[in-house]
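Margin note: ligand = zinc ion.
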Amino acid sequence: MSSNNAPCNKFECKICGKIYKRRSGLTRHAMTIKEANSVKSTIYDLPEKAIEETRQVLVYHIKERLKQHSKHVGNVHIMVNCTESQFFGVFKGHIHNYYPRTGNYKCIFKGVDSYSTLSHILGDDNCGAKYFLQHQKTFVLTYQLPSNPSNHPDPLQKSCLYQESDPLQEPDPLQELHLCQEPDPLQEPDPLQDQTLMHAARKQRTRKPKPIQIVIGWKRKSKSDVRNIVYSSGFAFINFTISRTKVVDNLY
Ligand SMILES: [Zn+2]
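Resulting structure:
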């Protein structure tokens, strides 16, 4: 991560990763974030109890996606009915983007503190974790150590694969590479196939892991019929990654 005193003078927003050449660019960015968190004319004040209920609804829908089986891990996208005022009531102060043209909002939670920030916002320490038998925990992945070579969303599944899978069934990228470097001289070389293999091998080597983050936003969906009669509703959407692990604790 670059910082403000990097030799090449790059100014980076630590939340969204946007890089500015000048400090003034980053300052302007900070101003728009501040603006995004200011109360809009479309927002009305809700009693704290109503905001608390909205938090509980969001937590409910997140936790409903945390399941025991490995097929439920990975990236998920959920949408929950939510008014703009409810969304603003919960996330004010943490909004990163506001799009005046559409009236949509976006928050980004990334980095080592993201889970504690989100737990604080949603008022629930277990908002992103669910426990199952055999010490299994399924949780919202919010941060991975940069040194961690494994970026698999389901380490349990991965170790299981390593132990039980048939290596003959797994495609070996090294072997593919070998094939395309040393084609059988007796066979007619198929340039197209070679290219495909090369491409596949290269793709496998350079695939970049997606950044681990939680994106929560709000948007209005509007629809209309043939008579142009419009109907609409607001939604909170949440994009996150689900992972699983074994918990070792002294409760049992
Ligand atoms: Zn930013």
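The longest strand covers residues 230-246.
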